[in-house]
Protein 1
Amino acid sequence: MKGINMIQLAKELGLSVSTVSKALGDSHEISAITKKRVIELAKKYKYKPNPFASNLRKKKGKQIAIIIPDIVNNFFSLVVDGIESITMAKNYDTFIYLTHESLEREKALLEHLENGLISGLIISVSSGKEGYGHFQEFYENTKLPMVFFDRVPDLLQFPKVISNNYDCTFDATLRLIKAGCKRPIFFSTTEPLFTNMERIRGFQAAIAHAGISFTDDMVVKCSDDMDYNYSILRKLFISKKRPDGVFASIEKFAISLYQVCKDLKVNIPRDLKVIGMTNLRTAALLSPPLSTISQPAFNMGKEAATLLLKMIEKKSYAAANDIIVLKNELTIRESMQS
Amino acid sequence: MKGINMIQLAKELGLSVSTVSKALGDSHEISAITKKRVIELAKKYKYKPNPFASNLRKKKGKQIAIIIPDIVNNFFSLVVDGIESITMAKNYDTFIYLTHESLEREKALLEHLENGLISGLIISVSSGKEGYGHFQEFYENTKLPMVFFDRVPDLLQFPKVISNNYDCTFDATLRLIKAGCKRPIFFSTTEPLFTNMERIRGFQAAIAHAGISFTDDMVVKCSDDMDYNYSILRKLFISKKRPDGVFASIEKFAISLYQVCKDLKVNIPRDLKVIGMTNLRTAALLSPPLSTISQPAFNMGKEAATLLLKMIEKKSYAAANDIIVLKNELTIRESMQS
């Protein structure tokens, strides 16, 4: 059974909770007589202060919702860790909500959160399919601070934390070409996400820069389903148009590709050069070690949380136009050697 | 701007929201005259039913909290996906809270959730350091259904979903010995978790079974910090007592070990045989492919969610003593070949 709490103590003494709290904290605002009464009753009931309870009172309403597509992808897990490294230090509670790439789920959640129990949101969108009107509407109804990261609603005026997707895809694609690829392929998501469009732009620009003529089949659409991806990649690699270089824009595409190459005995890097956008902890331990573009996931989370807390605590939306652009890191490993 | 909603319609008509809803749904409970009034006003304001709003009304209070240590570990990510495969189909909202292995955070979170806005909890504990009194207390205060998985409070009467840690560690350790290891080592967590204790028991039993005398230094304590683990494993592998076999009980221990072996050029499996407990998607693609014990993470999530929903919907705690034991899967790959 739980012991007596401060509310019960206050009731029995006919005092306010705040007075009891101050008396137990030996505050100079409380008379010696009242302190004595409080302490005696507290002793009688073996009252023990609960460090978490007082912490929680301070935290009232200090809750932040993190809305992300999934957590099996290492990128989002690391962003969450970055966010929580900031919010934990400032005594904010965070809870994570997964959309599983479903726009419907995302919309339903926003309606649900309109009740106003939270102080702010950090979001990476599920899809760009129908635009981002639901976020705008949510903001108009609640005026809650919102920060977007990575997959952002590019045309809306919300603060955003992104990374230099265009530049790094451009650079990496040129590196593939310099390593000997005549016809690199871009593995793309099916959703019209800002991140993906930036990467495709970078890819196309590099192709043009190298004097290769771009054709639509140089962008291969992969899905969220790894079995499906395995089967289309397998078909691609037993076809006559087998690519000699791949830019995998999503972690799971690179994993499926490695699996296909292993099964078909396609030698990486001799027959195929590969670079993947991923924060996979095992990239350097794969056979062969995978060249990667790593997004600064932990830092993206830190920046997004810092921006959000600034907005919450200043109660202002002055940061609405802030766009923080962080640098991705290119690491060349054996998978891309010429 | 948002269009008119059902509440506003009801207000203007002087009707209850429920009547308006039934009128729009052409219910036989509502008179023709009222239906006409409602539909006319709805047309005038271009009212559009919001499919999520009606869904949300049904969902009122259908919220489940998932409390887990972290999501960078693939095991927990997959369990969450398993849980949500069940809860999404039944229109429950789920929120994930990370304890980051902090007992304090876990306690604070429980106090926070005592407000009763949720219908139930699915939990994997952060630590067994101080026992599990806070869960018992939470239950006594709230009577909310709770299901534990994997890291469970073994001595408390809550429903639990676990996997056969003792048996599979016993089997895998014997396999290490049969593959030629004279002195296998167990990489352990520092927390007194039920899962870990079961695995150590299995390891010790296999050692005894093989006629090897167990010494305390056959259990090496790793921490939550990968840099720390790297440094202690490096020391271990440049020492005279270099192990010839390792059972890594946690995913990140296996990753650190592979990194150390790569850097020190310790040849796996020639000089060292390795098996890791992990759901790492890249296990088969590592150099060399890692032998694994995979917990049935997705199924554990499904089972835990199914049990919880049963308890919530029957409003009974009849399942309190249920313990569901699922089987782990042992996959031998090159890292363990003799």
Protein 2
Amino acid sequence: MGSTIYCHVIYHEAGETMVIQVNAELMNKRSAEALVEWLGSFGRTGKGGVTRLLYTKSWKEAQQALKNLMEENGLPAYYDCIGNLFGRLQGTETPGRTILTGSHIDTVIEGGKYDGAYGIIASFIAVLRLAEKYGPPKKSIEVVSLCEEEGSRFPLTFWGSRNITGSYDLDCVKDVKDSDGMSFMEAMKEAGFNPQDYSPPIRNDIDSFVEIHIEQGMTLERNGKQLGVVSHISGQRRYTVLIKGESNHAGTTPMPYRKDALTTAARFITFLTEQAGETDPHLVATVGRLTVRPNVSNVIAGEVEFTLDIRHHQEPVIDSFCHTIFKELKQLSVNMNTEAFVSLWMDAKPVKMDSGIGQLAMELSLEKSILCQKMISGAGHDSQIFGQKYPACLLFVPSQGGISHSPEEFTKSNDLEAGIDLLTDVLHKLAY
Amino acid sequence: MGSTIYCHVIYHEAGETMVIQVNAELMNKRSAEALVEWLGSFGRTGKGGVTRLLYTKSWKEAQQALKNLMEENGLPAYYDCIGNLFGRLQGTETPGRTILTGSHIDTVIEGGKYDGAYGIIASFIAVLRLAEKYGPPKKSIEVVSLCEEEGSRFPLTFWGSRNITGSYDLDCVKDVKDSDGMSFMEAMKEAGFNPQDYSPPIRNDIDSFVEIHIEQGMTLERNGKQLGVVSHISGQRRYTVLIKGESNHAGTTPMPYRKDALTTAARFITFLTEQAGETDPHLVATVGRLTVRPNVSNVIAGEVEFTLDIRHHQEPVIDSFCHTIFKELKQLSVNMNTEAFVSLWMDAKPVKMDSGIGQLAMELSLEKSILCQKMISGAGHDSQIFGQKYPACLLFVPSQGGISHSPEEFTKSNDLEAGIDLLTDVLHKLAY
């Protein structure tokens, strides 16, 4: 950040005087790019990626640096008991009602600098701009840097947003450990959030939640749009499928007598991907992880285990697709003399974003001549947690080449700025 | 073996007196089962399997114990310079022509006690019986315990038989190491076979080679036969196929825009296994090893690498099959927006066994009312190396459940004995 130059903007509103301290250098530059780069320096890896896992040193440094930045720029900042960070712009008319805006600070392992971070930076810049241009809002606005979304250190996701909405509490993590065997609570304590001080940080003052995020897909790029307004976040089901056959000699077992678990898996994957392509343009089905046992070139596979990830924004479509493919799996297994075992380990329901705020965002982008489209989010986001409790809005900026969760993640500066422009206007309409 | 009781059988033949020392206990029992069990004690594992890798301690102990057993039973025994062990019954008329009979002493890791070992024991018992019943043969007979066939310690196979036939020499192993980094030559030296003493142990005195082995398949069991006479040993081609696609987000990448390496692989495996089933009953095609990168449930597979093992006893059938499937792979890769790279790393030609000895074996089994059938061997055996240079005969006894290379390997005592009966008769016809 270099040396920090402040300008003191003084508002007089409803008889009160408020002083909002703004980092002039950044405000003059209005540079999302510079701030994203700066935030990406916390947890920067040798490969140019970012690894910033919940409650680690780089995570703590990033949150603390953001807290300082907020405070230096006139937003009083505070943590809740699990490490969600809030920077508050107090409302003047109904200060007890809050427009929450932001995203998550954690990353995947060797992720990029935009995923999550851009949403925090964009919200921060938007709020400073609003404060600068319009003074304090009627409703309060808070910028949030959510502590965790990705599930990259501990096997649970949305720790930040789920605590705020009350769907998770400390009980959910009492047996959770990271891959080094460190308990969730121990990690939390080390980061300065003593589980003994925990009390559910549920927020009942939230009027609406607005998040901006990189798309993590190619829809906007392909359509030549700068902005996406998300109407639904897809539901996700994740299964593990285990096919049991019989290991046998690759040379001495005639084809008709085989119980080849990998051939059954191959036929099923062929069927389900063809079926997904034919069912609905928004349906996606992925087998991303697959292991073969014993995995030897001259031995017929005795067991194959694979994951199956199915997403759509309408639950009946998922239901019907699953019914079709698992019926086929059953038949295939019989035909191939193998057995199939299916277990469901994740079932996130589709979530509808608030159509009013979505419509508002579409209209505002039209006014500003930002090329914008409605879309479905196939990826999960904090908005889907908030959207179950409060009106929520999720905006996307393009991801170059659709790449995310990678050091190659990139969004053009123009697109970052267009996103902040629209976010600023949406927040203005909601809070002023 | 407990205490050893010898009886001295004295033959008078062509004016000479030969004394053949026979272990009476074993000979009385005529127990292949007991000897297989005994040999399996060298390298016995905790799971009840056998791990007896080339030039290891258990390998050396097994060879030395066999050498002692041969010598105690009247067969002068010797090693060649790489550790193949021979027990010789000298011929009286053309002692310079030798009928070689036996199999390999090494096992896979956690293998069974029959694979290889049974062939050595059967040959040993057969030769003792012949000596006992008929005295010395016209041609010499040698029982061989081949030092290596499986390729389980070092990445090369048939080290024993390929030295005898001259297709391998010391140059072939000069850069070869085991998985612990020990060089082949160092291991050889440690086992007592100094590479400095190496001189190609090629045998030009071999009249024919006769091997008996467990089937390692279910053909005999399924057909209710006790014996198989192998007409051909299948050729084998092994390929590595690499499919390159593009890793991408499982939720945000619509099906038509995917470059899913695993889906391409699945379609190819589906096609090739269906095609193999339709082409020829003797053709087998196996994908036994497959790895996915990055192998994460919510990431589309960017790369999939798998092996392909194709076997048939007629090369034109393999040629035509490979042509068909790789043409399909090319088309599939284009259709799926992925790339495929195919590399051949093993190409063992089919080998025909000697039809004269095969016919003889069929007739002899008919005489003895042993239920017998001609068959193809889909597995590789030392006979395929010998069969390229000398007339060779390969006989099979059933493997229960087709299981081999496993502690579960099992062949019934009756079947072991029927095999020795037939082998004895075949050797009798060839050497007397």
